Amino acid sequence: MSIEGPSINDNSKFSLENILGENHETIEHPSANGNPSGGWDEEATEKLVAEGYCVECEDQPAQVLCETCLDKFCEVCFAAQHRKGSRKRHATKPLSSGQEKKAKTENGVVAKSEVPNEDAMDEDDGDDEEEWLGISSEPPAPKLEILGAQPALGTDVGEWFVERSKYIPLRLTLGERKYLRLLEAALNVSEYTDKIDTLGFGLSKAKRIVHQIRELCAIMSGLVLAADYKQGQELFTDRDFEANADFYQQIFELGRRHKIMNPDKMRTTYGKLIYLLQDSQTPEVKDLLSFSCVKPIKTVHIVLEEHCATDLLRDKLVTVATQEIYSEGRSRRDIQKDIKAKERAIETLSSKYERKGLSQETIRQCLYSIGDNHAFLRVNRDPCERMIAYLKQYFHPTQAKDSKTSLAIRSGKGGARLSHDHSKQYAYVLQSLTLWREILHDLFRLWFLAEQDLLSENVSYRLRDTGQGLNRVQAAPKTSHMMHTILHKAQQRVGTWIGSSVIHMGDHNVPNALLFIDKYTQIYRILLPICNTLSLIPSLAQKPAIRSYIDDEFGSTENLICEILGDFFRHGFDGSGADNFFDAGSCIDGRLTSAWNWCGSLEKKRYFHVFLLTGFLGFDGEW
């Protein structure tokens, strides 16, 4: 006599108890009953644009009306869609203030207006009919305002810190780090993505939902058991995951917060964590667990705002208390003086703003977290500024250039896919480095928006073969709009724009916001080793034997530095590195692809030995 498993049509059988039981292989989600599958297998359903909002991004108030297209755009979207060709000549009409007022009344937010600079939109070899993938049904994103490296002239420094602190995660305490190690250990041994993100074994979507629930429960059970054995035993008996909801939310939030503050950490486990949380946000899983595994990231602003202590960020001492103290080119006396001034400022602020529920230690933690952000910017953003300085010093178009120092490239020569003369390549490199600098300056904000897109309950993903294996293809409307805002600002700053301004997001090039963020956290891995090598060459040349080698091989240290920089500026920005002719090129992400391609060919360069002499080990985060 055969024993039948639970019927796929019986919703009562689709319970957590049966899924975690022995006969789970016969269980399918009720959605498999002849109905078209949803979720990752189908496109998002388009919805009507809310009245008064941009027809393109749909989350910012419309500010201009294109009289030719008869569509309403925000300033950023209009500049992106009308950047070349006949569209560039479209007449516009500013919308009345009542239009923006109406949008503000509906959602309570209005984006900061930016005046488009049409002269900045130069030639563009991208698709003129570029489509921003994904339609979000979520509430409009918060007001987008790109902050400068320092507060703008005439603005309050305190308000700059207040706005910045909204996207600075709180540094982990010693007790929290214990749970972080526990989470990392669980994710290291987990095969979650190997089992879930697969099209093999004939598993339908309905059965894959059951598998992901079992895998998710196994990971969460292991975490509780490792943290508290008695509590873990009770969980195995009662299967009551909801009772430990706070624990799960806290431990998953710790991992996310730690990764944002330290992009070079959790390089293999963070992807598993995000994909696990992404699946936990699906309605099927949330209904069975009866809670959400996701909670907001704890930031400096959230902690201070809960205790009405945001005035601390407006205090004049906050600049001293959060400054980064470095030793390069400074005397020990000056360093010690700055250390003491910083310690006094921290103690003064912690005692001044201490109150019930907000201890001095927590205030110190907030101030140290802001200091961590400054350190992050110096390591990640400042190499872009140093490379811009090198570019202007050695290759400015006003200087006479011979054939050896020219940045001119030709398609098909040396692997290049672009054809630029010296002036055009100079402008192309300058705008690329400027854009990278702006992205890294606001990387924490981009990361917050990327996680909102990834963990959205309304924007589902599709499992697809993108040519680089199976990937979760998911639209990222919030991240995409922020990137277009940053791009618009960079275009206005450099004055002209060479090449394509296409931003890949939610397609086969950049499947989702996680891979987008991962690409741009690699910039410092490329630029920092180059900057370190260039800075060490003069001191290296003081050794007679090495000086003789440099003079014989390159003529002088200046010639050596110029050759390294020239080769990087030419072939690190030549549109190469794609798997086929249609990808990479001069698009926004293709610039980073060609830079990585140059890094892969470094060992074939004749100056590679100079890199090794300065202590270079690779572009993988080690030095």
UniProtKB/TrEMBL annotation:
Cited InterPro entries: CEBP_ZZ_sf, E2_Ub-conjug_enz, E2_Ub-conjug_enz_C, Znf_B-box
Entry keyword set: Metal-binding, Zinc, Zinc-finger
Biased composition (Acidic residues): 116-132
PROSITE patterns in UniProt: ZF_BBOX
Record flagged with keyword Zinc-finger: yes
Pfam families: ANCHR-like_BBOX, DUF2009
Annotated ranges, domain B box-type: 49-95
Keyword Zinc: yes
CDD domains for this protein: Bbox1_DUF2009
GO molecular function ontology, one term from the record: zinc ion binding
Region ranges (Disordered): 88-132
Transmembrane spans: none
Stated name of the protein: B box-type domain-containing protein
Species lineage: Eukaryota, Fungi, Dikarya, Basidiomycota, Agaricomycotina
